[in-house]
Amino acid sequence: MNFETFLLVFIPMFVAFDSIGTVPMYLGLTSEINSAEKKKLVIQATLAALLICVIFLFVGNAILEFLGIGVDDFRIAGGILLLVISITDILFYASRVRDVKPEDIGVVPIGIPLIAGPAALTTILIANNSYGTGYTILSLLINMIIVFLSLWNADVIKKILRESGSKAFAKIASLFLAAIAVMMIRVGLENLVGK
Q1: Which pLDDT belongs to residue 162?
Q2: pTM of the predicted model, to two decimals?
Q3: What angle do CA 194, 59, 3 make, to 5 degrees?
Q4: 3-state DSSP call for residue 1?
């Protein structure tokens, strides 16, 4: 296994999952829940997100093929979607946290789409098509462990980073996500024009 190739898969996925950036949203959603219930919720949400990601990893290409969508079409569409998501995160972070109802937490919206959102799913599919299933699964598993540990220790992370620090981390992750989105659009367009 090539370490440089692994990093090319792992880093965009790490940015897309935004494990530290999800902590303030997770804490906001679970503020009325006791610690024991929070721990159960983290396990449930992480497993649900992992399941959705794995299903999408193996079925995503078949769905695209059935619909007659090429990888580059999906790369461009995914890039545009990631760009919109990253801009929304940068400009409207606070309203996004407030819009989620506390009574609706669980698999949805914490597992999906907070953990396994469009950014993560698009990145997984592109990584699988570009670098192969082995690198993608390894990167996915490591990222899901990071997400799990971040949410499991959310109170500790909040104390270390404070609210402003975790929000700043989320904004930086969104900025990198925007850059990755632009790269995906550029590569997709180059591939389509080159055909």
Answers
A1: 76
A2: 0.74
A3: 65
A4: coil
User: What does the pLDDT read at residue 102?
Assistant: 42
Note whether 54 and 167 are within 8 A (CB).
Answer: no
CB 110 within 8 A of CB 25: no
Locate 173 and state its tokens.
């992750």
Which stretch of DSSP H or E encloses residue 87? Answer: helix 71-99
Task: Decide: 177 and 61 in contact? Cβ < 8 Å.
Answer: no
- Mean pLDDT of the region 57-75: 85
C-alpha dist (Å) from residue 22 to 17, 18, 142, 180: 8, 6, 17, 19
CB 18 within 8 A of CB 171: no
**Which tokens go with 151?**
């949410």
Residue type, 140: L
What's the distance, Cα to Cα, between the start and end of the chain in Å? Answer: 30
pLDDT(159) > 90: no
* Confidence class for position 108, pLDDT limits 50, 70, 90: confident
Q: Residues 6 or more apart from 135 whose CB is under 8 A from it?
A: 1, 5, 6, 9, 127
Mean of pLDDT values over 16-43: 82
